[in-house]
Amino acid sequence: MSVTDTGIGMTAQQKERIFTPFEQADNSFARKYGGSGLGLAICRRLTELMGGRIWAESTEGHGSSFYVELSYAIPESLTSEPLRKNDKPCSSSDLQPLTILLAEDNRVNAEFVAKVLSRAGHTITTVENGLQVLEQINHNQFNCILMDIQMPIMDGDEAARLIREQERGTDRHIPIIALTAHAMSDERARLLEQGFDAHIPKPVDISMLMAEMKRLTEAASSP
């Protein structure tokens, strides 16, 4: 693997010592660009621990390229027939296709969850904050909501509270599953009290998420 920049580059002498702890290209580098001179030394140590090598190629004034070479054995399970484009990932549940509202402001997290659930046959609408959640549920029907807690404009706590207020006095109750990096038991209890029906810690375990969606949506559809 390699990383290339278009920065200030290095001389041959600077390149020789760049992987030494607390060394940078020149003495004024940290003052101008920040850093402690440890990053590349740590990368070198980690690479060597994995039996690989790391090196740099650079031309002063024209940027630098850093290369890492690692050797890995290919697991036997990956040498079999690859997953075809239209194949669906295996699931321990027989979850029926759902219409899901996903609220997540981190684009990478949102794309991952949406892609996996879409391939499992579900229809996903993605939004970035709690205010957009409220707008969506006022105009569309969803089987459940997957909601991050820390989002801009309106966080997941406030959105869940307002949804439950809207449902008060009606027979409606849309399942809301919290997706959060906080996995402590007291956080789970707080979220349930706030109006969430379940709590899935990040990084999201898709099997656990599908199991919770199955449990909650089946309970919601029961007479």
From TrEMBL:
Keywords: Phosphoprotein. The modification 4-aspartylphosphate is found at D148. It catalyses: ATP + protein L-histidine = ADP + protein N-phospho-L-histidine. Residues 1-74 form the Histidine kinase domain. It is an enzyme of class 2 (transferase). One of its GO terms (biological process) is phosphorelay signal transduction system. Its EC number is 2.7.13.3. Residues 99-217 form the Response regulatory domain. CDD domains: REC_hyHK_CKI1_RcsC-like. InterPro entries: CheY-like_superfamily, HATPase_C_sf, HATPase_dom, His_kinase_dom, Sig_transdc_His_kin-like_C, Sig_transdc_resp-reg_receiver. Signal peptide: none annotated. GO terms for molecular function: protein histidine kinase activity. This is histidine kinase. It comes from Trichlorobacter thiogenes.
